[in-house]
Design a protein that fits this description.
2 domains; three-stranded antiparallel sheet; Signal recognition particle alu RNA binding heterodimer, srp9/1; alpha+beta; 118 residues; four-stranded mixed sheet
């Protein structure tokens, strides 16, 4: 998560890590292809629209911060059972499960998505 005014700085950092060819633009920000998934940068407004309200600690943060992790899994059912047993607030469909209570999970939104390649 970074405000648009910080995107040039974040872009330089991502370019240094992954190379210019890895960088891509999208409507909600920018990102980098890492070889193991994408590193995506969004504004606070875009993060809240995509996930849920930010925990207080992140809502106050002015510096760029990691706020979401997407995990690819071969099957969702084991994850669904674990999330249900934990009583974790979440949204789900046939393709993914998103845990929306970031404050309880290190101020990070967690999304588990089924990847048929696994």
């Amino acid at each position: 998560m970074a405000e648009e005014s910080d995107w040039p700085l974040v872009r330089r950092r991502l370019t240094g890590l992954y190379g210019e060819k890895a960088i891509f633009e999208q409507s909600s920000g920018l990102g980098a292809r890492t070889g193991n998934g994408n590193f995506v940068v969004m504004s606070k407004v875009a993060v809240e629209a995509s996930y849920a309200a930010l925990p207080e600690a992140l809502a106050k943060e002015r510096r760029p911060a990691c706020v979401a992790i997407h995990v690819s899994v071969s099957e969702l059912e084991p994850v669904r059972r674990f999330v249900d047993a934990a009583g974790a607030p979440h949204q789900s469909d046939d393709a993914q499960i998103g845990i929306s209570d970031a404050a309880s999970y290190g101020n990070v939104f967690l999304t588990f998505a089924r990847d048929p390649r696994l």
